[in-house]
């Protein structure tokens, strides 16, 4: 258990010399805060809110220095622990742009992603230009950039031979109310980072690097818990307050990689080590939800809100007992979300959910425009998202509180080897 | 320098017993990551992106455990170091609601703010209801809630006698393009926290506590660097990549409190210890800005981008030499932002700027809807924001890259004493 190779590249400030410098700087800062505190104390202790937060040195170097490698069998941002900030953005190739322009674009994007994930500045636009400087001073903050291809990409680039059958359009679901303008797209990028400015810097740099080759189609912003906000780092809560993702497949489990990734000898060849991601913008009807009692909410989900334990008993990670009855009825109701979504009721369908919450303010009707940017990763959507969503669409007690407002499916190729750009095996194959 | 009283209340997980529990939990987590890493290594080290981040225990308890006191001479959220997440929200009193309903509302809001800033759950709606649970597991994460009153509040509550002269409407500026629906309001709340879910939890709880007494008028979301993302914690960058806030008055300086807060014997009496906040939603024309060379950008601002040093030389905190000439011209241009905004060119006008950046996606014209939620705190707007903005409006080289899209001015009363609610001295005076 202690033999694993640390996968995190130490950030700049973790090298011994740099760390020393950083810590001295931090101590300098702490002293400055001390001066402020003293001045306040001198005013009779009355000004109780000035200089209220002290950051121990350790906290000031950890979050920023986390970095995730760009190269590998898989792209980053899939099994990487979900970051505090996420941007999802889709582009369409510009009219007239084809395979050649797309290849040049993916080469530029990959180069920018590699540099930024290492905490380095990037040239700004297609024709150069200075780095915007937004991420200056910060470490890579676990930045990941993940690239995907939509079904329409293959027609526009004359690469129809490379189109995977897994990119067949998702079926329509009865509860869908999809905005086509915020759905699908030729190209997709997921940006994640634990610092908002680092994430924004990457998004802007990638948008500028698109130049005239591709045009923004839609963009969404999301968030998760900040590292360190809770001492239960494996527990993720959504905006309904519910523990989310308990039943996710875990990398330590048998078949995890088979469920999530296309195998090395899979088809098409250029997708070896890749994955298919389903994105759904799921707005939550929080005003309705919050009016329900805690008992009602827990019955809808099938888990206790406090700790995520199944209503059949135990703790968060106890296997739900779907047959258990109490007081003459099922402990986990027939239409409870966790029953309807469970792999065992869906032919063992499995996907790795790695969502961000979103909150885009309030709608004209006064309701919060907030919910989940649901992202599900799988080797085959027909053995993951599709059968589960078909079932949820028909009989999930949670459905009345949700609105699926946008949908997309992308093929996310394997990670680039040294010197390679993402998608090279497709574009130059 | 080491004698100041720590103003931060230790969070739950900082007590010795709890800290021990947390650390054991964290070590358990690290081991789980270790298992994943081992499994990956067993697959030939091929799966380089799984379980890539390890969080040392220190980082996992620090951010969440920070807490800021609710009671005090001033409200929290003014001199508190700016948090990573902010929500700004304005309400209008409902038709028919007057002084009595407003007093009951401020009592409910204050009670909820006090509890949440201590990391405790709150009753949900006006009639009770469970806490939404969104902040469960997390520490207070330096949550602050700050309340203010707009000019229109005084007419609607029959409290015109309490209206401060400082709440006179701001003058119009030639470059304003204000959206009235996103400006002003009877009541204002600023929520800040270092965790996005803690901040959202507070916003929702306060909105639910409004009940039928007040209706949401507008709402904005903002962000800053995450604690720990940089080893320069005093340096804030905006979305132009520029160091921002260098010349802010500091609590250690003479007259800091006089500049920012209404004195104890000030007028009106209910505003003792209070402050006036000017809010401007300033969209940045980032596509235009990013096209300029680094030299041009630095000339517009008057500071070096890399470290914020004035172009007259030195380091970030070196006093700019506004007279210095080099190669026959002023080192800091006549229309450079820092010259036009400097207190010494504005009759010593001073304000404490404590902004959040914002990014609401992209506009219909393809430009980013992003910029600065400018928040300026001062004892008197006519000696702070107004003279500076008048000057900037006429001759700031930065103005062509900015759009002021919303504006508001609120009277933020002093902090509540034990047992008091915010604004009680006005509402029951």
What does this structure look like?
- 2 copies of one chain form a homodimer.
- Chain A has 429 residues and is α+β, with helices and mostly antiparallel strands.
- The first copy, chain A, is 27% helix and 19% strand.
- The first copy, chain A, has a domain at 284-408.
- Chain A has 11 helices and 13 strands.
- In chain A, helix 1 (16-42) crosses helix 2 and helix 3 (99-117) packs antiparallel against helix 5 (196-210).
- Residues 1-61 of chain A have low confidence and may be disordered.
- Chains A and B meet through helix 1, helix 2, helix 5, strand 4 and helix 7 of A and helix 1, helix 2, helix 5, strand 4 and helix 7 of B.
Low-confidence stretches of chain A: 1-61
Instruction: Give the termini separation of chain A.
Output: 40 Å
Shape of chain A: globular
Number of helical segments of chain A? 11
Instruction: Work out the largest interface and the residue count of each chain.
Output: A-B, 129 and 129 residues
User: What letter string, H or E per element, gives the SSE order of chain A?
Assistant: HHEHEHEHEEEHEHHEEHEEEHEH
Q: Give the radius of gyration of chain A.
A: 23 Å
Question: What's the rounded overall pLDDT mean of chain A?
Answer: 85
Provide the β-strand percentage band of chain A. Answer: 15-25%
Major beta-sheet overview of chain A = 5 strands, antiparallel
Question: From the helix content, strand content and strand pairing of chain A, which structural class follows?
Answer: alpha+beta
DSSP helix fraction of chain A: 25-40%
Oligomer: homodimer
Number of strands of chain A: 13
